[in-house]
Amino acid sequence: MNRESSTCPMLLIEIGTEELPSSYMSLLEQKLQDRFQAWLLEESWPKASETCLVHLTPRRIVFTIGTIEDKQQKKEEWLKGPPMKVAFTPDNQETPALKGFLNRCRTTTYEIRTLENGQYVFGLAKPENQTVIDFFQLQFPNFLLNFPYEKLMRWGQYRFIRPIKWVLALYGSILIPMKVLDTEARLFSRLLQGQGEIPVASIDDYFRSITKQSKIVLSVQERCVAIRKQLGSNHPASPDDSVIMENACRTEVPVVENASFPEAFTRLPHEIIETVLSSQMKCFPIYDTSGKLTNQFSFVMNGFRKTDLVKKGFEKVVTARLSDADYFYHQDQKVLFVSREHLLSKVLFMEKLGTMEQKVKRILYVTEHLGKRYNELNDPLLPTLVRLYKLDLTTLLVQELTALQGTVGKIYIQESDKTDLISHDKDKGTIAEAIEQSYWPQSDEDSLPTTEMGKLISLLDRWDTWIGIHCIGLNPSSSSDPFGIRRIVNGLLRILEERPGYIPLLEFVNTGMEAYRQINGLEFDETTVLTEWKAYYIQRMQSFLSGSVHFGKHRYDLIQAVLNRTDSRLVRSPRDIKQQVEAMEAHVTDPEFKALCQSFVRIQKILNTSFQSGSINPDKLELKAEQELLSIGQSTEKELKTLFHIDNSSIECFDPKKILSTLYQLNQPIQQFFDEVMVMVEDVAIRENRLRLLSWLLSMMSDFADFSTIVFDGGNEQ
Amino acid sequence: MTLDCIINTLTSFWREQGCTVLPAYDMEVGAGTMSPYTFFQVLTEKPVSLCYVQPSRRPTDGRYGENPNRVFKHHQLQVIIKPSPQEIQHLYLESLQSIGIQIQDHDIRFIEDNWESPALGAWGVGWEVWLDGMEITQFTYFQQCGGVDLSVPSVEITYGLERIALYIQEKLSVYELQFGAATLYGELRFQEEVQQSKYCHELASSQRLIQLFQLYFEESEQCLQHHLVLPAYDYALKCSHIFNILDSLGSLSVTERTRYLGKVRKLANQAAKQYIQCQQEAVK
Q1: CATH number of B3-200
Q2: Smallest Cα–Cα separation from B127: which of B150, B102, B158, B96?
Q3: Class of B204-283 per CATH?
Q4: Which one-letter DSSP state was computed for residue A213?
Q5: Does the structure show a pLDDT above 90 at A679?
Q6: For chain B, which end, N or C, has fewer CB atoms within 10 Å of the first or last residue's CB respectively?
């Protein structure tokens, strides 16, 4: 909001702190805003709730309210009091109990109401509406301190995000005398770090000193805008958003200036310079009009300082870092890149999951053993890629600039001469690209690898990590995911989703487990690992399908119907699951679809009674309707077998619409069966036989979906 | 301002703030935090204010004197205060003023950087202080030490003295720094850097060092059995230094590395627990 043009807010509370962590400032600002707004509404300040704002800088959390009511707006309400017998004496006099109740409600108005268990007094309670000053003085500190912050620190005897240094709380020009922990509100604020404190007489005064004179920008987003604007035309390629955000969270008055480093360093691969500038120094590289990296860069400082001094400082640090990187780059050249394989035994993959050397061996194992079941893994270049893709972790450059993992591998492969491992230039290019892309996508927003090799290596790498995590029982949850498994698996599922055809997921799991057993000597219970793996797979798919950029947003009951089939013999691929949900979405209004669901539920209900499972005896099917049901069931089963991937990896195209229409064939005979056949007859043999027939049909339908979860408009009358 | 003058001015500054100025601990350590003056003093609730210069050895950073910024041994000025004064940031900025850094002119920022030492079972919340983009100080509120949650957190300020001197003297290499009025840093320390780097990266015998580690470890354990925590901790420091040399030789596999680190941590954690027990018994 633009404070200079709009009217001055009526209330302002500034909590001054030691520097707040930049890593989650933007998120915290949003969360505090939402909570502040909700809290004001709960506490009956509707106007205030609509006009409140929360802003964060590294040194302050600022709460403002544009317009606020004079008093809380709690309404009168009827409260239940004592029963008649307690409220009145036998001669109908008010008892002390009744008087006490009315006092507590601050009212004299009451009435008698008859409830199920007798007559009671109800009092029309008058609310105790606090004034602005009383309310904030008493309630705000609790609101602030009880907010569910992700991480608190301790200092002295207190806990908060960072130590609180000052509190300013103003209602117009009146000080709200609140105390937060041990800090009393005073009519003072502070300027930039090191510039001391200033008296503040009113909210007007505050904005005059803090935002107008000192140029402090209170909101994170506005600081981002300010930085982007100042970067201006020096940066034709759009500057990195995350670096802009980081700078916005590290400054109160972002001032952008330009500096340079020695020309000689531009001979380094541009990725190295970009990483030093943006990852390490949070600066912005500058490119010339042809898009080539120059020896200029922009940096952001906090406030208007002696620019020459600050510039010299930044140049010195950037130069020192680049000369380090240059040193590492040249040291790395002394060891032939492709001959670094043995060094991987010194790089840890994950505690309990061994080294990178073991990881590479596991992936080679999986590639070799799954090739028979999943043809895509048979590319002759793949084993070479697997052996090379982690080698850059042994270089000094990656040990120093970890953000460059993958990229350094690409650069060093491109620079290396022909070897036994890679004999063609074309292969060199393919492998170099794939090494860099093995880390893609790095986030849910990031794009997937662009080459087939890149996709395969990213897939195999992620798969190995995912299985490993379950093998050591570190199952990620929504509150605890220290290894970032969610991000890894999300990327994997997106890669899989792109891949048509049958994917033998269960074999992937089994071979993955076998690799950990063979190569790491790890011991675990296979069934537990499989169960945990599957549970996490289903949870991820559910989250993806209920609303994501990549999988769309689908009906919850349909997602459940597809994912509920926990007892089925196969685990469908992300693509199959998505297509299945989409197919059901397209047909959910078909009358046949509804009929199928109804049959499903009806059979399920009958099967709740206990019976011995076993094969159906056709001779014991006496009636025409049940014989017909068996025969149509058999022909349907035959047709379905050609449509499912169950035992048949040669089926290229999974067509859920076709499966659905095949299942529709069962509707009519099932209907007829229920019309003409009595299932629960006295004769045990006949009854069991009929139950088995139904059970067999149910499992046929269940292979596709759990139709019982589907909800129809107007309820599930069945 | 010469390096010795910077040290003198900063220690005087903190002395005036009530800190006791101590000599450096006379053993090899990787950081000022590892000195028992910090390690044990932060564990209790008793107020403490100390300041000392600690030479800190980092074998993996040895660069044979070839790198202008990275050295086997550098110097930290360590300030440790408990409980943390309300205006500790302000005091710190004043200390920079005392060595001639005009804080109004420069971009001084506290950048989120939480600190952790796996060997000491210690971690804290805090910042690295940037002076015009250069990290010159680590500023930490200790939250845990020796695996023990600290009921009264200490604040620790660690100045990187070489970095600050580079800035003040406007030099590009540590070896060009004026250590004293008549002494160059390079004259005093260059040979040490060359020789120590050669030793730690090439010459050290990993076989003998592993034996040494084991001997020191056992000695420390024996001390712990008899509740002699201070000598036990000295031997834990020896183990830690030996581990660092082994690490810079590149002769430890990943699993060994974790194992050795775990052993040092175990000694430190036990020493911390016993120290707290002793203090509590002494109070009774």
Answers
A1: 3.30.930.10
A2: B158
A3: mainly alpha
A4: I
A5: no
A6: C
Instruction: Indicate the helix (H) or strand (E) that contains A611.
Output: none
Q: Residue A567 is encoded by which pair of tokens? A: 């007892």
The domain ranges of chain A are: 11-71+131-213, 77-125, 233-332, 337-553, 574-709
Q: What is the pLDDT of residues B128-163, one digit of tens each?
A: 999 999 999 999 999 999 888 898 999 999 999 999
**How much of chain B exceeds pLDDT 70, in percent?**
100
> Shortest CB distance from B143 goes to which of A58, A154, A195?
A154
Using alpha carbons, select from B264, B172, B223 the residue that is nearest to residue A319. Answer: B172
Query: Residue B66: its chain A contacts at CB < 8 A?
Result: 327
The dihedral over CA atoms of A654, A660, A662, A665, expressed in degrees to the nearest 10, equals 170
CA A201, A204, A210, A212 dihedral sign is negative
Residues A660 and A703: beta-carbon distance below 8 Å: no
Q: Does B81 touch chain A (CB under 8 A)?
A: no
* B251 inside 8 A of chain A by CB: no
- Average of pLDDT values for A558-578? 82
| CA-based nearest distance B210→chain A, Å | 18
B262/A contact by beta carbon, under 8 A: no
Judge: domain A574-709, CATH 1.20.140. Answer: no
**Does A302 sit within 8 Å of B84, measured CB to CB?**
no
Distance, in angstroms, between A528 CA and closest chain B CA? 27
Sign of CA dihedral B249, B250, B256, B260: positive
Phi-psi region of A282 (alpha: psi -120 to 50; beta: other; left: phi over 0): left
Cβ atoms < 10 Å from Cβ of A179? 12
Q: What is the ipTM of this complex?
A: 0.91
Tell me: cis bond preceding A441? Omega within 30 of 0 counts. Answer: yes
